[in-house]
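Standup, Tuesday
Yesterday: got the pipeline producing structure tokens again.
Today: sanity-check two examples.
Blockers: none.

Example 1:
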Amino acid sequence: MNLLEVKNISKSFGDLQVLKDISLSVSESEVISILGPSGSGKSTFLRCLSMLEQIDGGSISYCGEEAVSSANGYPVYAGKKKLREIQGTFGLVFQNFNLFPHYSVLKNIWDAPVHVQKRNKSEVMTEAKELLDKMGLGDKGDYYPYQLSGGQQQRAAIARALAMKPKMLFFDEPTSALDPELTAEILKVLKELAAEKMTMVIVTHEIEFARSVSDRVVFMDGGVIVEQGSPKDVIDNPKNERTKTFLRKMQAEE
């Protein structure tokens, strides 16, 4: 079953069209990496999928439920209650962590499941501690975000997203704020999640990571999906000239 179905979405900021008629489906347990140059629309696409930005046209469905439908060429969003339910199916991990600075690491993780999802606090606390252990942060629950390294903050952010029990996770350049050593920590966590069959859509500039962990690679440029397929097809044997140029540039910088 497709967990996510995106059809013909478009998005503009003023006169600048950032997304042009994009369609994509994501099936259960699939890991998709989205590559592309800066300004290609990757992060905006993710923000539209996670409802942080409103689309100008097209439709988005999660688990068969329409979050946004299209009527007379205009997008129509589901009602608040329905949207809240749909938003519970996915989690989003930002490049700059977005942890609450005035909450301890543990509270960052248990707060939303208790207050938003109205789940049992002692149950959630147990799960939160297990997630911290899983992320190698078992002894950091009482710390505050500023006391953690960037890699630790990002792992805490991943634990926070997982605490909501989403069906899929979105990652927006999860390693771009980190140095190479910390980047390796986060890529290891993402590989473990992939091995556990977590459905993920990852905007990344890490070509080797995309090659090793993705079921499918999507290359975006100029607000459109230029090419998509297996890592072997897109990274090792790209067909489109724009993809080839981008990969050559990225490999020259490594």
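Example 2:
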Amino acid sequence: MTTEQSTSGNGSAGRRPMIEAEHLSKYYGFFAAVRDVSFKVYEGEVVAFLGPNGAGKSTTMKMLTGYLNPTSGVARIAGHNMATDRIAGSRHLGYLPENGPLYPDMTPMSLLEFFAEARGMSRERTRERIEAVVDLCDLGSVLHKPISKLSKGFRQRVGMAQALLHEPDVLILDEPTAGLDPNQIREVRRTMRRLGEEKTILLSTHILQEVQAMASRVILIHEGELVYDGPVAELSKNGEDLDAAFARLTVGQPA
């Protein structure tokens, strides 16, 4: 499949690459889940990572975060090779997997305190950061309720707060609005717009409205291969909408 790429307008000049995929591949036997994918996300960018179900998005994100070793290629976070230097790289990284695991018997407060201790944060630092992420993710009203009793929207916010607790430079978010109602989606988008003012964000989604609402650039993969990397505005051709552009690049339908 032909790859459509455009580096114009991504504003990367002079900025540090914070997320790097360098010829990443992941094979399971003869099956290629991801095949020779390369891209960079620069400091301060909010980039949408798109693809149909089964395209290799989650596999790529797991390699970028160090949860999965690539068959070949290199994943870097803030310059750290995530296969060989994961601990150093993870200090810069906040990761929210789809349906991220939470401990249902804990409250948001006890969960955040647990993760702060696991990261070796001081008592003073823990207090400061919990206060900051509770405010950012608007968790004050549920801070002492069991996570099992929270709505999916609030659970997503708890997961986001945990990912932000150590004040990372980089966020990798896998389907952060999946299964949420419109009001919850609006709240998550609001939070992410605030985060995008100071963080580097790679946002995996299959909801095209998310792209227009939050990202300036799109990386699109299909059947494990990169098929587009460029500005949102250049993804469409001849006045087509994003749905038509997505179909053209993933199933070969004309605009």
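Quick observation on example 2: Residues 4-92+170-250 form a domain with the Rossmann fold fold (CATH 3.40.50.300). The CA atoms of residues 177 and 186 lie 9 Å apart.
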